[in-house]
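## retry 2 of 3
previous attempt timed out at serialization; input unchanged, resubmitting
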Amino acid sequence: MKYYILQLGCQMNISDGERVQKVLEGLGYEATEDENEANIVGIIACSVRQKAIDKVYTRIIKWNKLKDKKNILTFVTGCVLPADEQKFLKLFDLVFTMSELPELPNMIRQYGVVTPVGTQTLDSEFETILNLPEEKPKEHAVPFKVVNASGVKKKKVLPRPDKGIEEFWHIKPKYGSGFEAYVPIQNGCNKFCTYCAVPYTRGREVSRPSRDILREVKNLVDSGYKSITLLGQNVNSYGLDKKGEEISFPELLNSIGEIGNKSPNNFWLYFTSPHPQDMTDEVIEVISKYKCLAKQIHLPVQSGDDAMLKRMHRSHDLAQYRHIVQTIRRLIPEATLFTDIIVGFTGETEEEFENTRKAMEEFKYNMAYIAQYSPRPGAASHEWPDDIPVQVKKERYHKLTDELMKHSLEYNKGMAGKTFKVLVRGKDRKPGFLSALTEGKIIVRFASDDEGLIGQYVNVRVTSAAPFSTEGEIVVRS
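## retry succeeded, writing output
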């Protein structure tokens, strides 16, 4: 028996999906990339943009039609707004939050599906998957959807997703790679940016116990993983919800830095995404101290205009942001800088947009993820007029992209003639080439058909540059 999962959205959703896969495989299911041969089909949903939610509806319509031909079980989890949740309850067999993932075996059993290893709950075999602390009492399974004698499904409105998230973190993930891994350190967000629905899908901030984070990171390092990314909606507010009980984000990075100092294995540690409000000088100082803490910073600006930042409820202004960037340039001059920007947000004037373009010119980002604003139900701005025409949004998007390409190309040209240690990630789209990333996450492709290099460090001398990538030739395996 097989399962198929469609993963939508960010790296956090990818990480969540790895734990869902682990639970299903603990029940005896095998993964398949062909949804038509699966017995269980599910979606890790994303509510950031309407387009992602539209994909959920498109897929469940298709799957429900398949039920006329075969017996399949459907589920949806991930980032789901309350309004969508109520609709999904009518369309999917199972709707659950990540906090409730440990009870998925019980949900499947109560739905009447026989798994490949039998209808089991938290027996000794499954406990090894969950990795639950011995001292934690097990709670009885909560019925989610069960089929009664008349065949009518009883459905339950789910609790908010910040409840019980720590038990979810105890599930050992099925890492999607043998050399790159995502490690969640936090769930939820307290910032309530007006364009964002995350606080309504994932709840308030909850920090994962640092002992568990450090244990997972050390295990990955000892296993030879070379790229590890700490995940959270606002990673640098880590520990603030447990003051006096938990270490701070700089202290967490410091502890990981010490793991790197003591380990014979080389690795790069990244984190995403931080919020400028909580990005202290101490964080940057710690990164500068340790070789294993990657010299790449993703620092979302969203807008370069103070009035717009207030409408977005970003809790920082450009002066604060500028101080952070200046500190990065001073303490970690080799660091690359990535960002997120929204164009066409409600009421964005030409002057406000121009200030954003000027900010891009000033900070010279290596990469920017530029989004054209679209209202999202659940976010505060959904009630505001979406008053910037689509064509204007597109024009502003292209102007910022042109600005980004100019600075990215300038930086990449400066790499020419130099040799860089890179991590080979896979085959490149260019035939006969492999694709790799520098520590600063700049793409480097080089001619080679040796797929044995994938997942390894090599040294590559850059010979040419394009706006978002470079090309080179392998010097020696690192």
